[in-house]
Amino acid sequence: MKYFVVLTLIIFGFINCLKGQSRKDLEEKRAKTLGEITYVDNLLKTTAKQKTESITAIKIIGNKLVLRESVIRGMRDEILLLMDRIDLNELAIVMMESDLVVLKNDYAKAVINSYRTKKGNPELVYILSAKDFNQGYKRLKYLQQITKFRRKESEIILELKNQIGTTKARLQNDLYRVSDLKRGEEEQKGLLQNEQEKKQQMVKSLTKKEIQLKKELDEKKRIAVKIENEIARIIEEERKKAIRSDNTPEQKLIGENFAENKGRLPWPVEKGIITSHFGIHKNAVLKYVEENNIDIEITSSGKISARSVFRGEVAKVFPISGANMTVIIRHGKYLSVYTNIINLRVKTGDKVSIKQEIGDVYSDPGNGNNSVLKFMIFETNSKYLDPEDWLAKK
User: What is the pLDDT at residue 339?
Assistant: First the structure.
Protein backbone atom coordinates (compact mmCIF):
# COMPACT_ATOMS: atom_id res chain seq x y z
CA MET A 1 0.00 0.00 0.00
CA LYS A 2 2.70 2.49 0.96
CA TYR A 3 4.51 1.96 -2.34
CA PHE A 4 1.29 2.68 -4.20
CA VAL A 5 0.85 5.93 -2.26
CA VAL A 6 4.40 7.09 -2.92
CA LEU A 7 4.09 6.20 -6.62
CA THR A 8 0.82 8.17 -6.81
CA LEU A 9 2.50 11.23 -5.29
CA ILE A 10 5.43 11.01 -7.72
CA ILE A 11 3.20 10.64 -10.80
CA PHE A 12 0.92 13.55 -9.94
CA GLY A 13 3.85 15.70 -8.91
CA PHE A 14 5.51 15.05 -12.28
CA ILE A 15 2.30 15.82 -14.23
CA ASN A 16 1.77 19.07 -12.31
CA CYS A 17 5.38 20.04 -12.98
CA LEU A 18 4.92 19.55 -16.72
CA LYS A 19 1.63 21.47 -16.73
CA GLY A 20 3.22 24.26 -14.71
CA GLN A 21 6.05 24.56 -17.21
CA SER A 22 3.62 24.75 -20.16
CA ARG A 23 1.56 27.34 -18.34
CA LYS A 24 4.67 29.40 -17.59
CA ASP A 25 5.52 29.40 -21.31
CA LEU A 26 1.99 30.57 -22.15
CA GLU A 27 2.15 33.34 -19.54
CA GLU A 28 5.50 34.57 -20.90
CA LYS A 29 4.20 34.48 -24.46
CA ARG A 30 1.07 36.42 -23.46
CA ALA A 31 3.11 39.08 -21.64
CA LYS A 32 5.35 39.45 -24.69
CA THR A 33 2.37 39.71 -27.06
CA LEU A 34 0.68 42.32 -24.86
CA GLY A 35 3.94 44.29 -24.97
CA GLU A 36 3.82 44.16 -28.78
CA ILE A 37 0.19 45.36 -28.69
CA THR A 38 1.29 48.34 -26.59
CA TYR A 39 3.94 49.14 -29.22
CA VAL A 40 1.33 48.91 -32.00
CA ASP A 41 -0.98 51.18 -29.97
CA ASN A 42 1.76 53.81 -29.93
CA LEU A 43 2.08 53.54 -33.72
CA LEU A 44 -1.67 54.03 -34.08
CA LYS A 45 -1.67 57.01 -31.71
CA THR A 46 0.91 58.86 -33.80
CA THR A 47 -1.11 58.08 -36.94
CA ALA A 48 -4.39 59.16 -35.29
CA LYS A 49 -2.93 62.60 -34.59
CA GLN A 50 -2.94 63.23 -38.35
CA LYS A 51 -6.73 62.60 -38.39
CA THR A 52 -6.41 60.84 -41.76
CA GLU A 53 -6.90 57.21 -42.73
CA SER A 54 -4.21 55.39 -44.64
CA ILE A 55 -3.38 51.90 -45.85
CA THR A 56 -0.45 51.88 -43.41
CA ALA A 57 -2.83 52.59 -40.51
CA ILE A 58 -5.12 49.77 -41.66
CA LYS A 59 -2.14 47.39 -41.85
CA ILE A 60 -1.02 48.45 -38.38
CA ILE A 61 -4.45 47.83 -36.87
CA GLY A 62 -4.62 44.54 -38.81
CA ASN A 63 -1.34 43.54 -37.12
CA LYS A 64 -2.89 44.47 -33.78
CA LEU A 65 -5.92 42.26 -34.48
CA VAL A 66 -3.61 39.29 -35.13
CA LEU A 67 -1.79 39.94 -31.85
CA ARG A 68 -5.06 40.31 -29.95
CA GLU A 69 -6.37 37.02 -31.36
CA SER A 70 -3.07 35.41 -30.30
CA VAL A 71 -3.60 36.64 -26.73
CA ILE A 72 -7.14 35.20 -26.68
CA ARG A 73 -5.91 31.83 -28.04
CA GLY A 74 -3.17 31.78 -25.42
CA MET A 75 -5.71 32.43 -22.65
CA ARG A 76 -7.91 29.62 -23.93
CA ASP A 77 -4.93 27.25 -24.02
CA GLU A 78 -3.99 28.26 -20.47
CA ILE A 79 -7.56 27.69 -19.27
CA LEU A 80 -7.53 24.20 -20.85
CA LEU A 81 -4.20 23.41 -19.17
CA LEU A 82 -5.54 24.56 -15.80
CA MET A 83 -8.76 22.59 -16.25
CA ASP A 84 -6.69 19.47 -17.03
CA ARG A 85 -4.62 20.08 -13.91
CA ILE A 86 -7.77 20.66 -11.84
CA ASP A 87 -9.17 17.30 -13.04
CA LEU A 88 -5.88 15.55 -12.22
CA ASN A 89 -5.65 17.15 -8.79
CA GLU A 90 -9.27 16.24 -7.99
CA LEU A 91 -8.50 12.64 -8.97
CA ALA A 92 -5.31 12.69 -6.92
CA ILE A 93 -7.21 13.99 -3.85
CA VAL A 94 -9.82 11.21 -4.16
CA MET A 95 -7.11 8.53 -4.49
CA MET A 96 -5.00 9.92 -1.65
CA GLU A 97 -7.97 10.31 0.70
CA SER A 98 -9.00 6.72 -0.09
CA ASP A 99 -5.45 5.52 0.65
CA LEU A 100 -5.41 7.60 3.83
CA VAL A 101 -8.53 5.84 5.14
CA VAL A 102 -6.97 2.41 4.45
CA LEU A 103 -3.65 3.43 6.05
CA LYS A 104 -5.36 4.82 9.14
CA ASN A 105 -7.41 1.62 9.57
CA ASP A 106 -4.31 -0.57 9.12
CA TYR A 107 -2.37 1.59 11.57
CA ALA A 108 -5.18 1.50 14.14
CA LYS A 109 -5.36 -2.31 13.92
CA ALA A 110 -1.58 -2.57 14.30
CA VAL A 111 -1.61 -0.34 17.40
CA ILE A 112 -4.48 -2.30 18.99
CA ASN A 113 -2.79 -5.63 18.27
CA SER A 114 0.47 -4.33 19.67
CA TYR A 115 -1.30 -3.14 22.82
CA ARG A 116 -2.98 -6.51 23.31
CA THR A 117 0.29 -8.35 22.76
CA LYS A 118 2.13 -6.18 25.27
CA LYS A 119 -0.63 -6.53 27.82
CA GLY A 120 -0.72 -10.31 27.65
CA ASN A 121 2.95 -10.91 26.91
CA PRO A 122 5.35 -8.01 27.62
CA GLU A 123 8.23 -7.59 25.16
CA LEU A 124 10.91 -8.35 27.74
CA VAL A 125 9.18 -11.57 28.79
CA TYR A 126 8.72 -12.47 25.11
CA ILE A 127 12.46 -12.11 24.50
CA LEU A 128 13.60 -13.86 27.72
CA SER A 129 11.28 -16.82 27.13
CA ALA A 130 13.27 -17.79 24.04
CA LYS A 131 14.80 -21.27 23.97
CA ASP A 132 18.29 -19.98 23.21
CA PHE A 133 20.22 -16.78 22.49
CA ASN A 134 19.72 -17.04 18.73
CA GLN A 135 15.94 -17.23 19.07
CA GLY A 136 15.97 -14.35 21.54
CA TYR A 137 17.97 -12.21 19.10
CA LYS A 138 15.51 -12.97 16.30
CA ARG A 139 12.58 -12.01 18.56
CA LEU A 140 14.31 -8.73 19.41
CA LYS A 141 14.85 -7.92 15.71
CA TYR A 142 11.22 -8.81 14.98
CA LEU A 143 9.99 -6.40 17.63
CA GLN A 144 12.29 -3.67 16.28
CA GLN A 145 10.96 -4.19 12.77
CA ILE A 146 7.37 -3.89 14.01
CA THR A 147 8.23 -0.63 15.78
CA LYS A 148 9.99 0.70 12.67
CA PHE A 149 7.05 -0.30 10.47
CA ARG A 150 4.55 1.50 12.73
CA ARG A 151 6.75 4.61 12.74
CA LYS A 152 6.99 4.52 8.96
CA GLU A 153 3.24 4.07 8.64
CA SER A 154 2.63 7.12 10.82
CA GLU A 155 5.12 9.15 8.72
CA ILE A 156 3.38 8.11 5.48
CA ILE A 157 0.00 9.05 6.95
CA LEU A 158 1.34 12.47 7.97
CA GLU A 159 3.00 13.00 4.56
CA LEU A 160 -0.19 11.98 2.76
CA LYS A 161 -2.28 14.40 4.85
CA ASN A 162 0.14 17.22 4.05
CA GLN A 163 0.06 16.34 0.35
CA ILE A 164 -3.74 16.35 0.34
CA GLY A 165 -3.73 19.80 1.96
CA THR A 166 -1.19 21.13 -0.55
CA THR A 167 -3.11 19.67 -3.51
CA LYS A 168 -6.38 21.17 -2.28
CA ALA A 169 -4.72 24.60 -1.94
CA ARG A 170 -3.27 24.30 -5.47
CA LEU A 171 -6.68 23.22 -6.74
CA GLN A 172 -8.31 26.30 -5.21
CA ASN A 173 -5.64 28.59 -6.68
CA ASP A 174 -6.18 27.03 -10.11
CA LEU A 175 -9.94 27.64 -9.82
CA TYR A 176 -9.31 31.31 -8.98
CA ARG A 177 -6.85 31.55 -11.90
CA VAL A 178 -9.36 30.05 -14.35
CA SER A 179 -11.95 32.58 -13.17
CA ASP A 180 -9.46 35.45 -13.72
CA LEU A 181 -8.51 34.15 -17.16
CA LYS A 182 -12.14 33.86 -18.24
CA ARG A 183 -12.73 37.47 -17.21
CA GLY A 184 -9.57 38.50 -19.06
CA GLU A 185 -10.64 36.56 -22.14
CA GLU A 186 -14.01 38.35 -22.22
CA GLU A 187 -12.22 41.70 -21.86
CA GLN A 188 -9.86 40.84 -24.75
CA LYS A 189 -12.83 39.76 -26.90
CA GLY A 190 -14.47 43.13 -26.28
CA LEU A 191 -11.28 44.96 -27.27
CA LEU A 192 -10.96 42.76 -30.36
CA GLN A 193 -14.53 43.57 -31.44
CA ASN A 194 -13.93 47.32 -31.02
CA GLU A 195 -10.73 47.13 -33.04
CA GLN A 196 -12.41 45.11 -35.80
CA GLU A 197 -15.16 47.75 -36.02
CA LYS A 198 -12.55 50.51 -36.14
CA LYS A 199 -10.74 48.76 -38.98
CA GLN A 200 -13.98 48.30 -40.92
CA GLN A 201 -14.76 52.01 -40.53
CA MET A 202 -11.29 52.94 -41.80
CA VAL A 203 -11.63 50.59 -44.78
CA LYS A 204 -15.08 52.01 -45.58
CA SER A 205 -13.77 55.57 -45.37
CA LEU A 206 -10.79 54.80 -47.62
CA THR A 207 -12.94 52.92 -50.13
CA LYS A 208 -14.77 56.18 -50.81
CA LYS A 209 -11.44 57.66 -51.90
CA GLU A 210 -10.85 54.93 -54.49
CA ILE A 211 -9.52 57.26 -57.23
CA GLN A 212 -7.01 58.88 -54.90
CA LEU A 213 -6.05 55.48 -53.53
CA LYS A 214 -5.43 54.07 -57.00
CA LYS A 215 -3.13 57.00 -57.77
CA GLU A 216 -1.16 56.31 -54.62
CA LEU A 217 -0.95 52.61 -55.53
CA ASP A 218 0.22 53.44 -59.04
CA GLU A 219 2.92 55.68 -57.58
CA LYS A 220 4.02 52.90 -55.24
CA LYS A 221 4.15 50.48 -58.16
CA ARG A 222 6.23 52.96 -60.16
CA ILE A 223 8.73 53.23 -57.30
CA ALA A 224 8.71 49.44 -56.81
CA VAL A 225 9.44 48.85 -60.52
CA LYS A 226 12.34 51.32 -60.40
CA ILE A 227 13.77 49.63 -57.32
CA GLU A 228 13.32 46.18 -58.84
CA ASN A 229 14.94 47.20 -62.15
CA GLU A 230 17.89 48.79 -60.41
CA ILE A 231 18.35 45.82 -58.13
CA ALA A 232 18.06 43.44 -61.07
CA ARG A 233 20.79 45.40 -62.87
CA ILE A 234 23.06 45.30 -59.82
CA ILE A 235 22.41 41.61 -59.28
CA GLU A 236 23.33 40.94 -62.91
CA GLU A 237 26.57 42.91 -62.41
CA GLU A 238 27.31 40.86 -59.30
CA ARG A 239 26.56 37.63 -61.17
CA LYS A 240 28.91 38.53 -64.05
CA LYS A 241 31.55 39.59 -61.57
CA ALA A 242 31.25 36.24 -59.82
CA ILE A 243 31.65 34.40 -63.17
CA ARG A 244 34.76 36.40 -64.11
CA SER A 245 36.44 35.90 -60.77
CA ASP A 246 35.54 33.42 -58.08
CA ASN A 247 34.55 34.77 -54.70
CA THR A 248 37.42 35.06 -52.25
CA PRO A 249 37.61 32.47 -49.45
CA GLU A 250 36.34 35.17 -47.08
CA GLN A 251 33.32 35.92 -49.30
CA LYS A 252 32.53 32.21 -49.62
CA LEU A 253 32.72 31.79 -45.85
CA ILE A 254 30.45 34.80 -45.27
CA GLY A 255 27.92 33.40 -47.76
CA GLU A 256 27.98 29.99 -46.06
CA ASN A 257 27.60 31.56 -42.62
CA PHE A 258 24.75 33.73 -43.92
CA ALA A 259 22.90 30.64 -45.20
CA GLU A 260 23.54 28.75 -41.94
CA ASN A 261 21.86 31.58 -40.01
CA LYS A 262 18.58 31.35 -41.92
CA GLY A 263 15.78 32.04 -39.46
CA ARG A 264 18.21 33.60 -36.96
CA LEU A 265 19.25 36.88 -38.59
CA PRO A 266 18.62 40.02 -36.49
CA TRP A 267 15.95 42.44 -37.67
CA PRO A 268 17.15 45.36 -39.84
CA VAL A 269 15.59 47.73 -37.26
CA GLU A 270 15.65 47.39 -33.51
CA LYS A 271 11.88 47.73 -33.13
CA GLY A 272 8.99 47.49 -35.57
CA ILE A 273 6.14 45.42 -37.00
CA ILE A 274 5.73 43.88 -40.45
CA THR A 275 2.95 45.75 -42.29
CA SER A 276 3.51 44.30 -45.76
CA HIS A 277 4.49 40.72 -46.50
CA PHE A 278 6.45 39.05 -49.31
CA GLY A 279 4.59 37.56 -52.27
CA ILE A 280 1.11 38.00 -53.73
CA HIS A 281 -1.54 39.53 -51.44
CA LYS A 282 -4.88 41.26 -51.72
CA ASN A 283 -4.81 45.01 -51.14
CA ALA A 284 -5.91 45.95 -47.61
CA VAL A 285 -8.72 48.16 -48.98
CA LEU A 286 -9.29 47.40 -52.67
CA LYS A 287 -9.79 43.64 -52.45
CA TYR A 288 -9.87 43.23 -56.24
CA VAL A 289 -6.31 44.63 -56.45
CA GLU A 290 -3.39 42.23 -56.00
CA GLU A 291 0.06 43.26 -54.84
CA ASN A 292 3.12 41.18 -55.71
CA ASN A 293 5.83 42.16 -53.24
CA ILE A 294 9.49 41.28 -53.58
CA ASP A 295 10.13 42.80 -50.16
CA ILE A 296 8.60 43.20 -46.74
CA GLU A 297 7.78 46.53 -45.10
CA ILE A 298 8.68 47.06 -41.45
CA THR A 299 6.92 50.00 -39.80
CA SER A 300 8.37 51.77 -36.77
CA SER A 301 7.56 55.01 -35.00
CA GLY A 302 9.71 58.16 -35.06
CA LYS A 303 13.45 58.17 -35.57
CA ILE A 304 14.92 54.71 -36.01
CA SER A 305 18.12 53.43 -37.60
CA ALA A 306 18.48 50.71 -40.22
CA ARG A 307 21.21 48.16 -39.54
CA SER A 308 22.93 45.39 -41.44
CA VAL A 309 21.49 41.95 -40.73
CA PHE A 310 24.89 40.28 -41.25
CA ARG A 311 28.51 41.14 -41.88
CA GLY A 312 29.41 41.92 -45.48
CA GLU A 313 30.40 44.64 -47.94
CA VAL A 314 28.34 47.55 -49.25
CA ALA A 315 27.81 46.70 -52.94
CA LYS A 316 25.81 49.77 -53.96
CA VAL A 317 24.26 52.96 -52.60
CA PHE A 318 21.83 54.78 -54.90
CA PRO A 319 18.78 57.10 -54.78
CA ILE A 320 15.26 56.20 -55.89
CA SER A 321 12.81 59.02 -56.59
CA GLY A 322 10.10 58.90 -53.94
CA ALA A 323 11.93 56.29 -51.84
CA ASN A 324 15.05 58.15 -50.67
CA MET A 325 18.24 56.05 -50.66
CA THR A 326 18.73 52.33 -51.15
CA VAL A 327 21.66 50.35 -49.72
CA ILE A 328 22.65 46.91 -51.01
CA ILE A 329 25.01 44.80 -48.90
CA ARG A 330 26.76 41.72 -50.29
CA HIS A 331 27.08 38.66 -48.02
CA GLY A 332 28.94 36.23 -50.27
CA LYS A 333 26.38 35.10 -52.86
CA TYR A 334 23.54 36.76 -50.93
CA LEU A 335 22.39 40.38 -51.01
CA SER A 336 20.36 42.27 -48.42
CA VAL A 337 18.58 45.46 -49.56
CA TYR A 338 17.43 48.41 -47.44
CA THR A 339 15.22 51.11 -49.02
CA ASN A 340 13.87 54.44 -47.72
CA ILE A 341 17.12 55.40 -45.98
CA ILE A 342 18.32 58.91 -45.12
CA ASN A 343 21.37 60.19 -43.22
CA LEU A 344 23.60 57.50 -44.69
CA ARG A 345 26.52 56.25 -42.59
CA VAL A 346 28.08 53.96 -45.20
CA LYS A 347 29.31 54.16 -48.81
CA THR A 348 30.02 51.69 -51.59
CA GLY A 349 32.94 49.40 -50.71
CA ASP A 350 32.61 49.74 -46.94
CA LYS A 351 32.90 46.57 -44.85
CA VAL A 352 30.05 46.33 -42.35
CA SER A 353 29.52 44.16 -39.28
CA ILE A 354 26.35 42.55 -38.02
CA LYS A 355 23.87 45.12 -36.59
CA GLN A 356 26.02 48.01 -37.81
CA GLU A 357 23.92 51.12 -38.48
CA ILE A 358 23.84 52.08 -42.16
CA GLY A 359 21.52 55.12 -41.89
CA ASP A 360 18.13 56.28 -40.61
CA VAL A 361 14.74 55.18 -41.90
CA TYR A 362 12.78 58.14 -43.28
CA SER A 363 10.05 59.26 -40.86
CA ASP A 364 7.06 60.46 -42.89
CA PRO A 365 5.32 63.45 -41.25
CA GLY A 366 2.31 62.92 -43.53
CA ASN A 367 1.89 59.37 -42.25
CA GLY A 368 1.92 59.89 -38.49
CA ASN A 369 5.75 60.13 -38.46
CA ASN A 370 5.86 56.39 -39.09
CA SER A 371 9.14 55.06 -40.47
CA VAL A 372 8.67 52.38 -43.12
CA LEU A 373 11.69 50.31 -44.18
CA LYS A 374 11.51 48.19 -47.32
CA PHE A 375 13.74 45.16 -46.76
CA MET A 376 14.71 42.46 -49.29
CA ILE A 377 16.99 39.43 -49.54
CA PHE A 378 18.27 38.00 -52.84
CA GLU A 379 20.51 35.18 -53.94
CA THR A 380 22.64 36.41 -56.87
CA ASN A 381 22.32 33.23 -58.93
CA SER A 382 18.81 32.31 -57.90
CA LYS A 383 15.67 34.26 -57.02
CA TYR A 384 13.95 36.67 -54.66
CA LEU A 385 13.75 35.24 -51.14
CA ASP A 386 11.13 35.82 -48.45
CA PRO A 387 12.92 37.90 -45.77
CA GLU A 388 10.59 36.61 -43.04
CA ASP A 389 12.09 33.13 -43.52
CA TRP A 390 15.51 34.56 -42.71
CA LEU A 391 14.81 36.90 -39.80
CA ALA A 392 14.66 35.67 -36.21
CA LYS A 393 11.17 35.14 -34.85
CA LYS A 394 10.15 37.73 -32.27
Answer: 92
